[in-house]
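Q: For a teaching session next week I want to show students how multiple molecules come together into a single three-dimensional assembly. I've collected the sequence lines for a complex. Could you give me the predicted structure tokens for the whole thing so I can convert them for display?
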Amino acid sequence: MALPKYTEPHYRIWHYVYLLICTCVFFFLIAPLFVIFPLSFNAEEFLSFSDGMKRLDPDAFSLRWYKDMIYGTKNPWGLAAKNSFIIAIFATLGSVLLGTVAALGLSSRHMPYKGLIMATLISPMIVPLIISGVAIFFFMAKAGLAATHTGIVLAHIILGTPFVVITVTATLSGFDHSVTRAASSLGSDPVNTFMKITLPLILPGVISGGLFAFVTSFDEVVVVLFLAGLENTTIPIQMWTGLREQLSPTILAVATCLIILSTLILVTAELLRRRSERLRGINR
Amino acid sequence: MSSETQKILTTDGIPLEVSLKKAERKNKLKAFLLVAPLLLFLIITYIFPIGDMLMRSIDDRMVTNMLPKTFKAMEDWDGKELPPEKVFEAFYFDYKLLVEEKTFGKLATQLNYEKNGFKSILKKLKRKMKKFEEGNYKEQIMGVHKRWANVEYWRAIQRRSASFTNAKYLKGIDMYENEDGKIVNVPEDRQIHRVLWLRTLEVAFFVTLLCFLMAYPIAHLLATLPMKYSNLLMICVLLPFWTSLLVRTASWMILLQQQGVVNDFFVFIGLVADDARPEMMYNKTGTYVAMTQILLPFMVLPLYSVMKTISPSLMRAGKSLGGTPFVAFWKVYFPLTIPGIGAGCLLVFILAIGYYITPALVGGASGTLISNQIAFHMKSTLDWSFASAMGLMLLAGVLAIYWIYNKLVGIDNIKLG
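A: Of course. Below is the structure for the complete assembly, covering every listed component.
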């Protein structure tokens, strides 16, 4: 962003002020995440930087809290991680399946009452989570699914499908329908056409919707707090209890792992988005 | 197409018009069948339960079902003087049944909500009732305690005859229906919900404003920088966006605590004394700071996607026509970004208004919002009908905001990512 030579001085000053403001905002956005890294290697039991850490004394750093996270006695993280992954994987599969099929229908130009149906399908994303939580809890309690994995998976399917519907309909909006017609004219049945032609083309949209659904389920805490029993504890629930009761550095070790996981997801999502844009011929 | 001969026929001999309509119907059905599984799933597990919340919030059939005979007998009582013998008789038989079923305690609780002093006289009635003789129940019941001869108490029972009530909604805005049937405010020292509603609106408003002020410059920078730099900077926005909410809240708890990094820094630069570190968490400051950072990406992304589509030549044109850079920005660039501003503000405001986790962790007592109150009634007091009523009031607010937004900007103008 080099300024032209003829820029007047007061605009020049304003330009640097503007860059300074931007730097501060970026710092505000990203810096809090980086506080967690060094503190998770703290050798002591405090959540602030010890004098040793400030001097960069190697003895002040340790893997103690990571060991505690994995081997600690009576620690809930193993079970929580297992539950979180199982729930998130099934919720993602459910959301992707239901959401993609619905998006195919919604993108058809023959679809009646499109606006109303779209609004219904994405409503779980719009309604505040606490209300969704109450409503879903009432349903699960009546259906006898409260405090079961099935109940939580279903709840997360409800919350995850809007993302799949939105990303897949967006991908389909640039979809050239003549290719499916060409397939049909060559004698392919609809299922075969979908598997061989449509799905590979919309796959980036489907996967990024799936990533959204996975993250939604993996991070979700409001609804799960209403639904989960002791057996169904998840990572967010454990973090929530930990943050409310005893803030131990083990939480920071877990948080560091979660940040690494989200970085991986971010990279995947970004690569997919670019691939999808390339395929759809959007050049920027 | 009036006569047979002019109709175009398909090869099967069916008129083309009919055939096309049939194909159209078939396509419609096909599209609908694809949507149907998800639609059905959501209606059963989500839309109906929200309706169920509505039922729970106005349902008051508990007392109605406990005293069916009494309310039947009360139908032609005007409520001015003591009810006639048949009401007393009906009440006696209703109550006797409840005592036998051992559910009279619930009635006592419910009636005590309506008027204090019911609990003791109902208990006394239960003890004395065993020796009651047949007939003249009015005399016998009034003999148990003098309050049974007070018409106020019978009116209180009558007030619970309706199957539906708006009491929970009134409670949600600190009002109630008094003994004369008028809707009045709860005494000032016992009002808690209005403060919470106002605080929720205030927090949502200021968080939205702060997010807007911070997001606008960086979205602009991201949209105008060359791709290779902006992609790198975009990570600063996207990484927090994809990171768990609890992780981000945890990092703010570490930063803002009294021995935390921010306070350490303030002491280091000499802004505050070491022994006078300000409390930045467990109050509104904590809620504001943490919520702004957490919701900021939701403002940046829609703004960025709109700004990306604005051609830089427009600004150049504005300047070449004699506008200063500021005028060109204000008259040309800013109006073009309004759809992005609308979408971002709507998104952040609605997310903020229903926020639960962050205020509960960093908000303390003075930073909690209406959602925390809903969760409290769901989990602690178990007053589910009240939680439902509050939830629906919040939902109505959110829908109203959508409606206004749709009127002003148009929902279709929202751009996400």
